[in-house]
Amino acid sequence: MNDIPVEVTVNGRTHTATVEPRLTLADYLREKCGLTGTHLGCEHGACGACTVLLDGQAVRSCLIFAVQVDGQEVTTVEGIAGDDGELSP
């Protein structure tokens, strides 16, 4: 299987990588971007642990392939944290 180049803006920073077509967005964020706030729970989209914002819309990143978000903007939990890294309810 041929790897595919993708460029995704994650939390305001552009990330470019070559990925397998079957790599999920959740795995892309963890493995290629080094962001571990997006968790994998059920890997079926039911638990919501992998939820991120894709162009402002909440999506389950375990159900989307990284190649599908090429050229789009993703916001993770790290991106909505304050400057001190803390989240506030």
Write a structural description.
It is a single chain. By secondary structure, the protein is an alpha+beta fold. The termini are far apart. The chain has a 5-stranded mixed β-sheet. 13% of the residues lie in helices and 28% in strands. It has one domain: Beta-grasp domain (Ubiquitin-like (UB roll)). A hairpin with a 2-residue loop joins β3 and β4.
Features:
89 residues, alpha+beta, Ubiquitin-like (UB roll), five-stranded mixed sheet, 2 helices, globular
Topology (SSEs and partners):
Layout: E1 4-10, E2 13-19, H1 25-32, E3 51-54, E4 57-60, E5 73-75, H2 77-80
Could you say which structural class the secondary elements and strand pairing correspond to?
Answer: alpha+beta
Mean pLDDT: 93
Element order, helices and strands? EEHEEEH
**Secondary structure tally, helices:** 2
Report the CATH superfamily: Beta-grasp domain
If you consult CATH, what is the topology? Ubiquitin-like (UB roll)
How many structural domains? Answer: 1
The rounded Rg comes to 13 Å
Q: Oligomerization state of this entry?
A: single chain
Strand content: 25-35%
Please identify, by name, the CATH architecture. Answer: Roll
Shape call: globular
Per DSSP E runs of 2 or more residues, the count of β-strands stands at: 5
* Helical amount: 10-25%
- In the sheet with the most strands, the strands line up as 2-1-5-3-4
* Low-pLDDT segments, ≥5 res: none
Give the biggest beta sheet.
5 strands, mixed
Q: For this structure, what is the CATH class?
A: Alpha Beta
The span between the termini is: 44 Å
In short:
The protein is an alpha+beta fold and 89 residues long. The protein contains two helices and five strands, in the order ββαβββα. It has helices spanning 25-32, 77-80; strands at 4-10, 13-19, 51-54, 57-60, 73-75.
